């Protein structure tokens, strides 16, 4: 018995869900899908693959994932996004873990991020460690709307890979960028953060220089430039939207 549960959150992931679940079933013996009322065939395909589907209106990245944990049969849980897969080295690494005696409560893996079918090795996209295998009795997801992660300081990094098919087009990237920047601004506002009129520009500029120059994004050619511009735009918008939220709050007083 594998004694690992799988966890995936979905919304209209018809094109990805079967490959994702097939990948996870290599090391998991049960999988929970928390779906935000998909309008395509995601739910039907997930159930056909043998997953338990929980329907839940989207609560944000962290809370949405946490909803699924009580439904996972085992204390060790592997969490993937629908556009992610286990690489062969990750399957082997997980099978070699002694879950009964490990001193760790979570494990991190390297992530190979693909854009338009091409593995991006620079611009901060590799090795891109992500914490995805954890003991649910000892830790949980950070309760934030965007880019949540397992809250744990007691973890190990393994030299194994998740394969991540990020975006099929620049249009898709920019659409998600807009949503992510809004959620990030809301998180900052909720925690009482403020920004000066210069914050959007300086954060955007710093982000571009960091990823294009110091993270060698220029080595990825046009894709690298696109990624770095997207990152800097997201940073700019996050703080611009934060300022907008404060302005709206003042007007309502």
UniProtKB/TrEMBL annotation:
It holds the Pfam family Glycos_transf_2. It comes from Hydrogenimonas cancrithermarum. Belongs to the glycosyltransferase 2 family. WaaE/KdtX subfamily. This is Alpha-L-glycero-D-manno-heptose beta-1,4-glucosyltransferase. Residues 7-92 form the Glycosyltransferase 2-like domain. SUPFAM superfamilies: Nucleotide-diphospho-sugar transferases. Gene3D superfamilies: Spore Coat Polysaccharide Biosynthesis Protein SpsA, Chain A.
């Amino acid at each position: 018995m594998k004694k690992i549960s799988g966890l995936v959150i979905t919304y209209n992931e018809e094109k990805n869900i079967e490959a994702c679940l097939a990948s996870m079933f290599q090391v998991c013996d049960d999988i929970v899908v928390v779906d935000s009322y998909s309008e395509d065939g995601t739910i039907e395909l997930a159930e056909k693959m043998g997953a338990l589907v929980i329907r839940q209106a989207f609560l944000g990245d962290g809370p949405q994932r946490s909803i699924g944990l009580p439904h996972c049969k085992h204390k060790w849980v592997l969490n993937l996004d629908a556009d992610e897969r286990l690489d062969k080295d990750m399957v082997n690494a997980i099978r070699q873990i002694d879950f009964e005696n490990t001193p760790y409560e979570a494990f991190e893996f390297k992530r190979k991020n693909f854009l338009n079918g091409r593995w991006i090795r620079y611009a901060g996209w590799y090795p891109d460690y992500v914490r995805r295998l954890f003991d649910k009795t000892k830790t949980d997801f950070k309760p934030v709307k965007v880019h949540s992660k397992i809250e744990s300081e007691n973890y190990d990094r393994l030299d194994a890979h998740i394969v991540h098919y990020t975006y099929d087009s620049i249009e898709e990237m920019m659409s998600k960028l807009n949503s992510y920047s809004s959620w990030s601004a809301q998180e900052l506002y909720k925690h009482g953060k403020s920004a000066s009129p210069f914050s959007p520009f300086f954060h955007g500029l710093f982000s571009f220089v960091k990823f294009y120059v110091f993270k060698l994004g220029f080595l990825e050619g046009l894709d690298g430039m696109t990624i770095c511009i997207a990152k800097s735009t997201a940073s700019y918008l996050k703080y611009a939207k934060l300022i907008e939220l404060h302005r709206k709050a003042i007007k309502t007083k």
